[in-house]
């Protein structure tokens, strides 16, 4: 399938989504909000990759939501519309935009994102929904919505406050300031910083290959456990992992791993099975 906002390739079990509108700073036009979840949901459902990497062409990762989302994307309310009725419709539009990034969190495989230049506004919503974040030393990050008179509503707040210290989440939110890659790494938003986009992408692809070499069942289980532990108590997390492994622990894969390692070989694992579309998809 061809996409208007990015290129999608799959090689060696790694899916690479590359934003390809550098002349517009990879702003997120209306098509982006349907194309991204379509692509990610299909990758997850079909298990056609073991890892997803998101990167971008050009100087900036993304300048965030394009103004056309407001003017052409159904977020404008006609002047003669009852305010409450318009607000109810806006809520549904907003939740649809939120789903475009929630799919990254819900994907069965890890999602890694590589950032250069600007990651502002909607781009912050995107990267906070990913599993791991990497950046070049010239990257910067901003919850820019505050500076244009609105409260960020596509996912930054509920996720960012669980990624970085609350004080920094509040300062970034209230000031709309730009923080550097160095500061972002210091406060825990980034996993690593690189000197150039080329060095970064090479490193991130190497990390993706390390993940892809592991058992897809073990990796998807690990992602589920981390997400669950983040949102639940320790006791709930312990109960869930015990229940998960009671039903999904793959003894054959474990034995195969030890046998392959004893021979100096790389173990081979079965991919996850594709799953059917759910109602409404």
Strand fraction: 5-15%
Kindly identify the CATH topology of the largest domain.
2-enoyl-CoA Hydratase, Chain A, domain 1
The averaged pLDDT comes out at 93
Total separate domains = 2
* Estimated structural class: alpha/beta
What's the overall geometry? globular
The CATH homologous superfamily of the largest domain corresponds to: 2-enoyl-CoA Hydratase, Chain A, domain 1
Explain what you see.
- The chain is globular and about 70 Å long.
- The model has no long low-confidence stretch (mean pLDDT about 95).
- Helix 1 (about 30-45) runs parallel beside helix 3 and helix 9 packs antiparallel against helix 10 (about 235-250).
- About 45% of the residues lie in helices and about 15% in strands.
- With about 280 residues, the chain is α/β, with parallel strands linked by helices.
- It has 2 domains: about 5-210, 2-enoyl-CoA Hydratase, Chain A, domain 1 (Alpha-Beta Complex), CATH 3.90.226.10; about 215-260, Lyase 2-enoyl-coa Hydratase, Chain  A, domain 2, CATH 1.10.12.
- The protein has helices at about 30-45, 70, 85-105, 120-130, 155-160, 165-175, 180-185, 195-210, 215-230, 235-250, 250-260; strands at about 5-10, 15-20, 50-55, 110-115, 120, 130-135, 140, 180, 190-195.
């Amino acid at each position: 399938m061809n996409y208007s906002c990015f290129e999608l390739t799959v090689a060696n079990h790694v899916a690479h989504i590359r934003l390809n509108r550098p002349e517009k700073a990879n702003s997120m036009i209306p098509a982006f909000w349907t194309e991204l979840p379509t692509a990610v949901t299909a990758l997850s459902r079909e298990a056609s990759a073991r890892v997803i990497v998101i990167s971008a062409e050009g100087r900036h990762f993304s300048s965030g939501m394009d103004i056309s989302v407001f003017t052409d994307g159904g977020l404008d309310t006609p002047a003669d519309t009852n305010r409450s009725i318009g607000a109810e419709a806006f809520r549904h539009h907003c939740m649809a935009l939120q789903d475009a990034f929630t799919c990254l969190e819900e994907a069965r495989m890890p999602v890694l994102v590589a950032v250069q230049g600007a990651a502002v506004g909607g781009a912050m919503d995107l990267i906070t929904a990913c599993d791991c974040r990497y950046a070049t030393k010239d990257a910067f990050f901003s919850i820019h919505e505050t500076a244009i008179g609105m409260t960020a509503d596509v996912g930054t707040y509920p996720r960012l406050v669980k990624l970085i210290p609350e004080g920094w989440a509040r300062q970034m939110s209230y000031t709309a300031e730009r923080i550097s890659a160095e500061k972002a790494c210091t406060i825990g938003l980034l996993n690593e910083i690189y000197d150039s986009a080329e060095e970064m992408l090479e490193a991130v692809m190497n990390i993706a290959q390390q993940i892809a070499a592991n058992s897809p069942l073990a990796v998807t289980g690990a992602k589920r456990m981390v997400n669950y532990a983040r949102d639940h108590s320790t006791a709930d997390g312990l109960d869930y992992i015990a229940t998960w492994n009671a039903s999904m622990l793959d003894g054959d894969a474990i034995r195969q791993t030890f046998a392959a390692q004893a021979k100096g070989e790389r173990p081979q694992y079965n991919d996850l099975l594709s799953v059917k579309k759910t109602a409404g998809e």
